[in-house]
Amino acid sequence: MQLIAIASQKGGAGKTTIAQNLAFAAHEKGRKVAIFDLDPQLTSLNQFDKRTLSGTDGEPATIAVTVNRLPQLLRAAKNEGRDLIIFDMPPNIGQESFLIANEVDLVLIPTQPQAYDLEAIEATIAIAATVNTPGAVIINRVPKDMKDLADDARQFVEVKCSYPVAPVVIHDRTQFMEAAAAGSSPIIMHPRTQAAKEIRDLWAWTEERLAQSTKRGTVKPKGEAAA
């Protein structure tokens, strides 16, 4: 079972949007996905509720999670045949963030391309770097036709932060907002659009990074060592 953390210490970066849409893209490719929602706002769980209440396919499965129950929930997910867990992380730096970042296979850090958003991701990068977990920044919500803005953001992260950046840029497209209102994804509602293509391309790159990762672990309750 592979584990991905979608982490950002700054609100509005699009953390839940990336978590949701990557889960849909992985599900489309046959992965058995579950989203573990650790954010107190429970936006991912609310998206799941929208899907189930509307009578549509509830996948990808989503549950609210606390760190103390992670080992049990991961075992249950594995027993259900889940092979990919995506953590929608809480918006803070704490023991939980370090614990999970230490045990996942990959940390993805979404950011908007504005200067104050980019400066705020350094704390999140430090967490992944401290525990030596592979990761990358995802440049998200880029206004359409503003390639220079995305290029400047990429340079900031790669040069100033010395950290990898995903090659796929996610743009600010209405299809993402429309799909979110239904608890869905452009992959489902607008499958032939650029929004859907960007998410599929991001998942393809993410899957390649997961294949390269040698990080493996089992999250333990606070106070216990990882196996």
Automatic annotation (TrEMBL):
UniProt cross-references to CDD domains, sorted A to Z: ParAB_family
Span of domain CobQ/CobB/MinD/ParA nucleotide binding: 4-186
Pfam family, one: CbiA
Coiled-coil segments on the chain, per record: none
Protein name according to UniProt: AAA family ATPase
